[in-house]
Write a sequence for this structure.
């Protein structure tokens, strides 16, 4: 009987799903290892958090993963300080600061956080309803975003609430890096966003 219980316990241990173990951290909380900086905007680590902040040129800037990802679930937390206009690019490629790909918006209230925008292409593909965005987004506080990309489908959630779901053939054909964006700014309205708990589960 003891041997049988031991076998059952061992089988349960190795066969039970452990979702936390399926995720891999993309940010180590110490430096920018695994990432590439594009542009003159500031990307740095402070108190274990990743910070993006307008630089001297106040132009668009990006922080992209060294690895490419096709099908995945991405989770992260963000907090908007100052003007929090930013975004998370999927299946993207960069030449300098010109990016090709699709952005899941991160922006101040009323600016379609969670919607999907095609850079240098068709523009907005889908936006959450104003009511959904207002109910989900927490200005000046930490927000949890989840993005699932599989085949030609993209779904975004904000603080547990689904923002959008999109099926798009062009997205389905692409692959590329994940990139965080900092939006261009003015001297009177500079951008600053904090990020943490950036992790990915590959679905391939």
């Amino acid at each position: 009987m003891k041997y049988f219980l031991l076998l059952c316990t061992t089988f349960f241990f190795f066969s039970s799903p452990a979702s936390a173990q399926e995720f891999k951290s993309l940010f180590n909380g110490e430096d920018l290892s695994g990432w590439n900086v594009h542009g003159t905007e500031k990307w740095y680590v402070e108190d274990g958090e990743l910070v993006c902040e307008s630089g001297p040129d106040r132009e668009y800037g990006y922080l992209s993963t060294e690895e490419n990802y096709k099908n995945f679930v991405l989770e992260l937390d963000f907090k908007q300080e100052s003007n929090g206009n930013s975004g998370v690019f999927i299946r993207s490629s960069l030449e300098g600061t010109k990016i090709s790909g699709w952005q899941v918006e991160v922006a101040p209230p009323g600016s379609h956080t969670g919607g999907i925008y095609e850079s240098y292409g068709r523009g907005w593909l889908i936006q959450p309803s104003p009511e959904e965005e207002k109910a989900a987004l927490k200005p000046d506080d930490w927000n949890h975003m989840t993005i699932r990309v599989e085949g030609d489908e993209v779904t975004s959630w904000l603080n547990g609430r689904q923002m959008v779901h999109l099926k798009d053939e062009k997205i389905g054909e692409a692959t590329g890096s994940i990139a965080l964006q900092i939006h261009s700014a003015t001297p009177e309205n500079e951008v600053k966003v904090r990020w943490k708990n950036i992790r990915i589960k590959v679905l391939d």
Observations:
- The mean pLDDT is 91.
- DSSP finds four helices and 15 strands in the chain.
- The domain at 22-202 is CATH 2.60.120.560 (Jelly Rolls).
- Helices lie at 2-15, 19-22, 130-136, 169-173.
